[in-house]
Design a protein that fits this description.
Elements lengths: L2 E7 L4 E7 L1 H11 L3 H21 L5 E7 L7 E6 L3 E6 L16 H5 L4 E7 L6 E6 L6 H11 L4 E9 L5 E11 L5 H13 L3 H6 L4 H9 L4 E8 L1 E2 L5 H8 L4 H11 L1 E5 L6 E5 H10 L2
Parallel strand pairs: 5-11
Antiparallel strand pairs: 1-2, 1-10, 2-9, 3-4, 3-6, 4-5, 6-7, 8-9, 12-13
Helix pairs in contact: 1-2, 9-10
């Protein structure tokens, strides 16, 4: 089962989040019939969204993320709530580009750099808050790191990794988020930076079978950690048909009338999960009548 662990160093100078989302990214690839390149990009975005959401949200809060660098992948859209229930899609799930010299996916070329990362936080009873930053590297993790520093004023390090094997199957996918808290010394920050610079990517460590405590030890050396919580990470359930009926009810009456007269019904496809919702002519007439 996929999981996300929240922890803190004993001295309170760092918070650390770690997730293994291999199953979820596999399922997302199956839903969207995505190319290996698109799977890597969408997987990284889902992982970064889960980590960021868990660090920022509580209760019924949600975040909606849109990344658009005007690259071949198109727009990347992800959402999560405080319970790490996620959904996401990319505009072009078949996108593919030449690999880097080391054989790894060229994520910055796929994503593009002529655009931004936009994150909207939705909290019950409050106006939605949107923060937006220019893309820095297009690697996804770096861009979330920059967002947290600029829009949330939280010094952070975000690392995300998806390993797709030679059979185009997701073998491992995971990530980490480390946040610096008040009181952290320059020496501690330098040591952390050195440790992170020497580490293999997180999917490699998960593939080796390393447990959370062992991975945290690679981040922080001998510094003791306290595990605060471990929560499951899952794909969000599909929205009910009524949600889409209500959405249709917000359309101009001329559009609904045209659907009835010309198409004698409507089909809505949920871009997050591929589910199709059929509305008959009678159902559309009822929606139209309810809006009068």
């Amino acid at each position: 089962m996929d999981y996300l662990i929240k922890s803190v160093t004993h001295n309170g100078h760092f918070r650390a989040y770690l997730t293994d989302m291999s199953d979820l990214v596999r399922k997302a690839a199956e839903i969207h019939h995505s190319s290996p390149d698109a799977t890597t990009v969408l997987g990284r975005a889902l992982i970064a969204t889960a980590l960021t959401g868990t660090s920022l949200l509580k209760g019924s809060d949600q975040i909606h993320v849109a990344i658009n660098g005007r690259g071949p992948i198109g727009q990347i859209v992800t959402e999560t709530n405080a319970q790490a229930q996620l959904r996401g899609y990319v505009t072009n799930p078949q996108a593919s580009v030449a690999k880097r010299a080391d054989g790894q996916p060229n994520v910055p070329v796929l994503v593009g750099l002529n655009g931004s990362l936009r994150l909207t936080k939705v909290q019950p009873g409050l106006e939605p808050y949107t923060g937006e930053v220019a893309l820095t590297t297009g690697e996804i993790g770096d861009d979330f790191t920059y967002y947290l520093a600029q829009s949330e004023q939280i010094p952070s390090a975000v690392g995300v990794s998806v390993f797709v094997n030679s059979k185009n199957l997701v073998e491992r996918a995971g990530g980490f988020l480390i946040q610096t808290m008040p009181g952290a010394s320059d020496n501690e920050l330098n040591l952390l930076e050195q440790h992170l610079g020497r580490l293999p990517n997180i999917s490699s460590m998960l593939a080796e079978g390393l447990q959370a405590e062992q991975i945290f030890a690679k981040f922080f050396g001998q510094t003791k950690m306290t595990i605060l919580d471990k929560i499951p990470v899952t794909l969000a359930a599909p929205l009910p048909k009524k949600w889409y009926a209500d959405a249709l009810g917000t359309l101009p009456k001329t559009e609904l009338t045209a659907m009835i007269a010309e198409d004698h019904g409507a089909e809505i496809v949920d871009r997050f999960n591929g589910h199709k919702y059929q509305f008959s002519e009678e159902e559309l007439k009822a929606i139209l009548a309810a809006g009068k």
